[in-house]
C-alpha cells in the first residue's frame, strides 16, 4: 500500500461497520502509537461522537435534525449509532486511550442544509466484499482486491478535498494515521500532494442560507439505547460485540472470529431452547440450518450469514421458539442499562433504515394452560406424592398403547408408499410423443421444447419388488443417550414387529405404570411374530452403532426386495454389499425430507407396565 508524499501522514483504508477492521485499527494504533489519529467523520458532530465514545461500553445513538428558524418546523429526527465494532469508533477510543489527538476530517463545506450529517459509512457508500475475507485471506490480500475494484472516480470530490485540507494542517513533527474508506484512498493521496494555503478549520458548522432567509439550525444530542432494541438496530449483533469488547482488554490474543462467534451463538440458543421447550435439535437439523444459512449468505454475496439469515434458517429448520432464542441470545449486552443520565430511546430498524427486512416471530412459551378450560373437562391426574406411580411398576411385562400403534403403523405405510414412488420415478423416463400418450404428457419437458413444437410424454415402468422393512433413525446416538433397547412383537397380523432404542421410559412417569420415552430409532417389519431380540443376536455384532444393527436386522428379516432406511446420513457403503448378499436393495430417504411436526409426534412412545394398564391409560394419555 502506497503512502502520500508527506512522510508523517499514513493513510489506511478501513471498511465501516466491520469487526475485523475494528480489530485491525486497534492493533495498528497500539503498535505505532501515532501523535494524531484522523477519522473520516463530520466535525459538526465531534462533541456528540466524543461524548458517546466516552459512554462506551454503554451503547448510544446520536439524534439530529434541522430546524427552520422562521416557521420553527423540524425535519424528521434521524439517528447514527455509536458501536464498539465500528473501525471509526475504535479509532477514537484507542486514540484517547494512548493520549493521541483525534482529528475529524470532514468540515461544514461538505454539508448541505436539510441533508443528513456524514456518518462512518458516508459519503463513500459502496458495495464491498465481505470483510470476513480479510480474516481468511489476510488483510493485504483483501485490501489489494478492494482497492483494485474501487476506482477513484467513485469517491466524493468535496469530501476528499475537505479531508486533504484537514490533513495538511496537522503538525509534521508527529506521526499521523488517517483512516478512510477504501474508495477515498487513491484520490486522497493525490490531493495531499497538491500544495494548498493554510486555512482555519475551527468553529461550529453553519448551514448555508436558503434564499433571503436565515440559515437553518442544526441540533444534535446523544441518547441512551434501550436494552431491548439492541439486537434490532445494531449493525454487529451485541453477542459478537461483547466478545470483541472483552478482547480489547487482551490485545495479545487473536481477534474474535465471526464464524466461531456464530457457532457459539447457536449453541447457546440451542441450550436455552432445550431448557424452555424440553425439545432438542437433531444432527440433521443443525446440518440443514448450516446449508440454508450459507445459501442465504451467498445470495447476498456474503461469506457468512448475517443475523437475519440465521433467524430465517432457525425458524425454517426448527420453529419460531428456536428463532426467538437465537434473537434473544444475539441481543445480550451486559453493560446496557435502561436508566441513564441520558434520555433512553427504544429505536426500531425503520428508524435507521426504512427498507429494512422484517420478520414476525410467534413465540409459544411452554406453560400448563394456554386458554380457559371448558366446564366439565377433566384435568390430567397427578401424583398424590412424588414417586407414587413408579412404585406401582411390577416389571412382569411391557406393552404398547394401541392408539399410538395405529399412528405409527399408518406412518410406516406412508413411508413405504413414498419409497415405492422413489423407485418408480428412478425407472421412469420421458420421450417425444409419436403414437401414444403412454402414461401422460410431461408438462415440464414439453414446455422446455415448446420452441420446437414437440410434445413429450412420460413412460413410467413398474419397479420390481415391494418395500418390506422400514428403519427410521432420529438420532444415531454417538453419545449413548438412548440406553433402552428392546424388541416387541405385533399382536395381530396387521401390526408390525418392532425393535427400537429410546430413552428409559420409566424415568418419566405420566401415569401409574405408564412411562414416556423418545425414540432414537426403530425398525418395523411384517409379517408379525417373527422378530428375535436383535440386540442380543450375535449375527449383527459387526454393526458399529445402533442404527447399523437395526439395518442389518431389516435386511435379514425383510421378505421384500427393498428395505427403506430413513436417517440424517446414508449408511456406510459396505452395507450395499451386505444387502446384495441378502438379495436386497437399500432405499435411502433423508430425514430432512419428512415433516418435522409429524416426526416429533411419532417420536414419542409410551410404554405400559402390563396389559392391565391399557384400561386406565386413556385417562393419562391424550
What does this structure look like?
With 622 residues, the protein is of the alpha/beta class. The chain has four domains: 9-225, no CATH class; 255-352, no CATH class; 402-427 and 465-617, no CATH class; 428-464, no CATH class. The chain has 20 helices and 18 strands. It has helices at 19-32, 46-55, 87-98, 132-137, 139-148, 157-168, 182-192, 230-233, 238-247, 258-277, 283-299, 307-317, 320-330, 349-352, 402-427, 443-448, 546-557, 574-582, 596-602, 614-617; strands spanning 9-13, 36-42, 60-67, 78-82, 101-106, 176-180, 217-225, 344-345, 429-432, 456-459, 467-473, 484-488, 497-502, 509-511, 514-525, 562-567, 585-590, 604-608. The strands form four sheets. Strands 11, 12, 13, 14, 15, 16, 17 and 18 form an eight-stranded mixed β-sheet that branches. Helix 1 packs parallel to helix 3 and helix 10 (258-277) crosses helix 13 (320-330). The radius of gyration is 34 Å and the shape is elongated. The relative contact order is 0.09. The model is unreliable at 1-5, 118-124 and 198-211 (pLDDT under 50).
Features:
4-stranded parallel sheet, 622 residues, 8-stranded mixed sheet
Largest sheet: 8 strands, mixed
Counting DSSP H or I runs of 4 or more residues, the number of helices is 20
Residues in β-strands, percent: 15-25%
The geometry reads as elongated
Overall structural class, as computed from helix and strand content, comes to alpha/beta
* Share of helical residues: 25-40%
Q: Kindly provide the radius of gyration, computed on alpha-carbon positions and rounded to a whole number of angstroms.
A: 34 Å
Amino acid at each position: 500500500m502506497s503512502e502520500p508524499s508527506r512522510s508523517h501522514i499514513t493513510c489506511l483504508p478501513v471498511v465501516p461497520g466491520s469487526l475485523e477492521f475494528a480489530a485491525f485499527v486497534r492493533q495498528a494504533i497500539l503498535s505505532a502509537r501515532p501523535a494524531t489519529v484522523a477519522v473520516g467523520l463530520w466535525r459538526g458532530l465531534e462533541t456528540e461522537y466524543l461524548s458517546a465514545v466516552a459512554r462506551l461500553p454503554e451503547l448510544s445513538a446520536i439524534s439530529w435534525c434541522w430546524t427552520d428558524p422562521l416557521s420553527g418546523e423540524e425535519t424528521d429526527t434521524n439517528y447514527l449509532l455509536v458501536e464498539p465494532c465500528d473501525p471509526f469508533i475504535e479509532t477514537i477510543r484507542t486514540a484517547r486511550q494512548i493520549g493521541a489527538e483525534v482529528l475529524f476530517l470532514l468540515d461544514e463545506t461538505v454539508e448541505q442544509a436539510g441533508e443528513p450529517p456524514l456518518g462512518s459509512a458516508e459519503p463513500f457508500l459502496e458495495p464491498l466484499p465481505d470483510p470476513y475475507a480479510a480474516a481468511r485471506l489476510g488483510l493485504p490480500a483483501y485490501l489489494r482486491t478492494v482497492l483494485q475494484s474501487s476506482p477513484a472516480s467513485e469517491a466524493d470530490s468535496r469530501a476528499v478535498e475537505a479531508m486533504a485540507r484537514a490533513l495538511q494542517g496537522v503538525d509534521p513533527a508527529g506521526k499521523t494515521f488517517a483512516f478512510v474508506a477504501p474508495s477515498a484512498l487513491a484520490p486522497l493521496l493525490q490531493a495531499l500532494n497538491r500544495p494548498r494555503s493554510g486555512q482555519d478549520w475551527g468553529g461550529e458548522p453553519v448551514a448555508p442560507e436558503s434564499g433571503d432567509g436565515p440559515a437553518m439550525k442544526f441540533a444534535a444530542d446523544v441518547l441512551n439505547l434501550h436494552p431491548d432494541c439492541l439486537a434490532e438496530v445494531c449493525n454487529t449483533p451485541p453477542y459478537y460485540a461483547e466478545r470483541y469488547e472483552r478482547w480489547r482488554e487482551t490485545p495479545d490474543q487473536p481477534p474474535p472470529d465471526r464464524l466461531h462467534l456464530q457457532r457459539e451463538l447457536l449453541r447457546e440458543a440451542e441450550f436455552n431452547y432445550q431448557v424452555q421447550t424440553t425439545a432438542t435439535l437433531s444432527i440433521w437439523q443443525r446440518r440443514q440450518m448450516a446449508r440454508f444459512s450459507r445459501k442465504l449468505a451467498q445470495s447476498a454475496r456474503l461469506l457468512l450469514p448475517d443475523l437475519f439469515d440465521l433467524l430465517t434458517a432457525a425458524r425454517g429448520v426448527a420453529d419460531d421458539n428456536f428463532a426467538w432464542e437465537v434473537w434473544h441470545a444475539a441481543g445480550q449486552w451486559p453493560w446496557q442499562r435502561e436508566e441513564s443520565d441520558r434520555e433512553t430511546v427504544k429505536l426500531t430498524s425503520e428508524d435507521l433504515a426504512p427498507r429494512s427486512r422484517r420478520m414476525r416471530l410467534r413465540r409459544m412459551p411452554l406453560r400448563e394452560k394456554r386458554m380457559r378450560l371448558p366446564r366439565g373437562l377433566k384435568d390430567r391426574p397427578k401424583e398424590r406424592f412424588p414417586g407414587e406411580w413408579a412404585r406401582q411398576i411390577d416389571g412382569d411385562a411391557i406393552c404398547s398403547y394401541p392408539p399410538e400403534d395405529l399412528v405409527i403403523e399408518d406412518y410406516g405405510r406412508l413411508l413405504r408408499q413414498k419409497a415405492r414412488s422413489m423407485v418408480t420415478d428412478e425407472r421412469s423416463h420421458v420421450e417425444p410423443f409419436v403414437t401414444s400418450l403412454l402414461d401422460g404428457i410431461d408438462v415440464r419437458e414439453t414446455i422446455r421444447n415448446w420452441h420446437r413444437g414437440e410434445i413429450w410424454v412420460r413412460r413410467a415402468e413398474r419397479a420390481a419388488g415391494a418395500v418390506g422393512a422400514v428403519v427410521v433413525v432420529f438420532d444415531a446416538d454417538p453419545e449413548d443417550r438412548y440406553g433402552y433397547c428392546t424388541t416387541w412383537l405385533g399382536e395381530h397380523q396387521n401390526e408390525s414387529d418392532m425393535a427400537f432404542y429410546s430413552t428409559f421410559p420409566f424415568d418419566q412417569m405420566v401415569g401409574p405404570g405408564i412411562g414416556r420415552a423418545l425414540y432414537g430409532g426403530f425398525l418395523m417389519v411384517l409379517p408379525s411374530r417373527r422378530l428375535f431380540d436383535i440386540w442380543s443376536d450375535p449375527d449383527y455384532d459387526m454393526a458399529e452403532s445402533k442404527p447399523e444393527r437395526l439395518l442389518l436386522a431389516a435386511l435379514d428379516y425383510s421378505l421384500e426386495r427393498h428395505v427403506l432406511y430413513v436417517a440424517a446420513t446414508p449408511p456406510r457403503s459396505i452395507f450395499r454389499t451386505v444387502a446384495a448378499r441378502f438379495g436386497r436393495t437399500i432405499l435411502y430417504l433423508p430425514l430432512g425430507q419428512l415433516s418435522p411436526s409429524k416426526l416429533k409426534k411419532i417420536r414419542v412412545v409410551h410404554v405400559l407396565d402390563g396389559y392391565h394398564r391399557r384400561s386406565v391409560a386413556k385417562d393419562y394419555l391424550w
